[in-house]
Amino acid sequence: MDVYASLVDAVGGTPLVRLNRVTGALTAPVFAKLEYVNPGGSVKDRAAVAMVDAAEEAGLLRPGGTVVEGTSGNTGAGLAMVAAQRGYRCVFAIPDKSSGEKIALLRAYGAEVVVCPSGVPREHPDHVHETAARIAAETPGAWHADQYDNPANPLAHYRGTGPEIWRQTEGRVTHLVAGVGTGGTITGTGEYLKEVSDGRVTVVGADPEASVYSGGDGRPYFVESIGHFVHPETVEDLWPSSYHPPVVDRFETIPDRESLLTARRLAREEGLLAGGSAGTAVAAALRIAAGLGPDDLVVVLLPDSGRNYLSKVHDDGWLRRWGFLDSDGALPSVGDARITAVGPHVRPTDTVEESLATARKAGLLDGDTVLVTTVALRPDRPVMAPEVIGAVSAERLRAAVESGTARGGDPVASHAAPALPLVGRGESAAAALAALEEQAAEAAVVLLDGKVHGVVGRSALRTAMG
Ligand SMILES: Cc1ncc(COP(=O)(O)O)c(C=O)c1O
Q: Among 3-12, 162-171, 338-347, 368-377, where is mean pLDDT lowest?
């Protein structure tokens, strides 16, 4: 048995476990590296320890100092664990997209947490990164870990994760599959494995479908901590320097539904309780393995535990609410009701006149709902639930112009009602109706795979219930 002088020494050395059931008839072995076994609960323990060590060595972090970081949660947990041991104070900026469990976890370690809005451009003062940088600048004795641009982050994987995988597979690994958040994991691990194998290891990035890393349009997505989202109003889209794009030989782009349902399958079929980004990585690994044979060996990284997401990825109610899980057929569902198509989406800055023209061009019937969304650059792309900021019908707009309460040149957002309630297509019709009644709304936006699918009214739900 290994005995450690400090918890920090127990970081790394995680198990490599063969997947046996989700792999079905595949002949190429797929091994999962269980990074959630790290003492702080995720792969980010490795980067956290390495960054603190480097900062102490460089004299940037001194006794009594404060560790500051912008984090989706896991780097914060790793840093908080080290800080608790070494007597540093911690302040973390975390996006409101991160699960409640992650926020509670940071507070459990004694950290201070500032929750920041997810849907703001990179330059906005409330953006996670801007918030962390400001707190660090304003706090005496503070050190900003800055995992996105800290060379100690990829180096931790070059020195730890990569050599471990090489040793554990006795040099037989042929493919590495991992998600890309800051890029530290895939960069350090991938560069090491390529070097040690004389370039025989293929590095595969597992990316959310919408992420710009793999060429997506940067719209929002539901999997946390990986990929790269770009707010439409972001002026300069900066990529982290912890990520070295040439390390990735190819990408597999995975839709949210496939990521989330793969994470669910891992728990139910393999007993591996992991997070959504592990679902993305395993979904990509299964696709890659389908084209390989018994002489290949795929290693896929599972970054964190499903315990971080018991209220999200691993909650059937949450999955159904966002349209990721279909009805189990036991009760009439929203999908059984008459769902009306949503009119074309308009930008909040479009004028009332322009919005009415858009509605007319689309041949909208009176009373159809025109949604106002935050999509400023590409209103033609699929609209994700978080992008909907309000709703208005063509009929209401026309009436407002006729009665003089709206002028043709007003921005449509100033005449839109708050966004309609959201219901998932797989939810029971009774639960959706109850939600509408509770919120005193006549209609709800129906979601499928986290995207706007249509609108359903109370009477349509009642009819479906029979
Ligand atoms: C759950 C989870 N998955 C994946 C990643 C991505 O790892 P990296 O930042 O090394 O690219 C992170 C990083 O925070 C994470 O927390």
A: 368-377
Q: Please tell me the distance between residue 44's alpha carbon and the centre of ligand 1 in angstroms.
A: 7
Same fold, 1-314 and 323-465: no
- Which residue has the CA at smallest separation from atom 15 of ligand 1? 225
Residue ranges per domain, the chain?
Answer: 1-314, 323-465
pLDDT score of 119 more than 90: no
Q: How far is the CA of 290 from the centre of ligand 1 (A)?
A: 25
- Assigned CATH class of 1-314: alpha beta
Give the class (CATH, top level) of 323-465: alpha beta
Residue 371, pLDDT score:
78
Instruction: Give the atom of ligand 1 at the shortest distance from the alpha carbon of 243.
Output: 11
Contacts of 395 (CB under 8 A, 6+ apart): 366, 367, 368
pLDDT band at 387 (very low <50, low <70, confident <90, very high): confident
Strands laid side by side in the 30-34 sheet: 16-18, 30-34, 298-302, 175-179, 202-208, 250-254
Write out the two tokens for 424. 């998932």
Please tell me the predicted confidence (pLDDT) of residue 374. Answer: 65
